[in-house]
Amino acid sequence: MKCWNKPSNLHLERNPERRRQHRSKRMEIVAHKILLIEDDPIMLSLLETLLKMEGYQVVQFSGEKLEDVTITLRNEKPDLALVDVNLRAFNGFEVLESIRCDANLKDIRVLMSSGLDVSIECIQRGADYFILKPYMPDDLIQSIRHVLGA
Q: 83: which of 38, 40, 76, 92 fits an S-S bond (Cβ 3.0–4.6 Å)?
């Protein structure tokens, strides 16, 4: 007759202190949340896939009104908003202004992107960083890490 050996981590369930330590270690590995504000569905899908592969939590903005962006930002509380400057219904500068003028949102880090080099204007208006399209995936990840201080 063979005896069943309990896995060594089962002791965590009986020892409350070990359970707390184990839980706190898992909590340290919480991923940064990134809100994507991009109106190109293909770009949006590619960005989401890339960022999830890198371990980020990703939320897509899918509304048509500037007010919806503010609501989404308040509800989701992202660490970073990746904002395309040239959107159909409104532009990224309006998004940036609504973030920086709202006391509840002003601390959200903002990474702006565009196919035109409007980096100086983005930074002057309050963006944390700018990346010129087209960019390589590694360049985007490096920019995000820079903005998040990771």
A: 92
Buried b (16+ CB within 10 A) or exposed e, 84-119: bbbbeebbbbebbebbeeeeebeebbbbbbbeeebb
Residue ranges per structural domain of the chain: 32-148
Measured CA to CA, the distance from residue 66 to residue 86 in angstroms comes to: 13
Instruction: Identify the pLDDT of residue 109.
Output: 98
Checking if the pLDDT of 38 tops 80, the result is yes
Q: Give the ranges where the chain is alpha helix by DSSP (H).
A: 11-14, 16-27, 41-53, 66-76, 92-100, 119-124, 137-148
State which fold the 32-148 domain adopts: Rossmann fold (3.40.50)
List the beta bridge partners of residue 130.
112
74-115 residue pLDDT tens: 999 999 999 999 998 899 999 999 999 999 999 999 999 999
Residue of higher predicted confidence among 30 and 137: 137
pLDDT at 11: 43
Cβ contact 148:129 at 8 Å:
no
26, two tokens? 């898992």
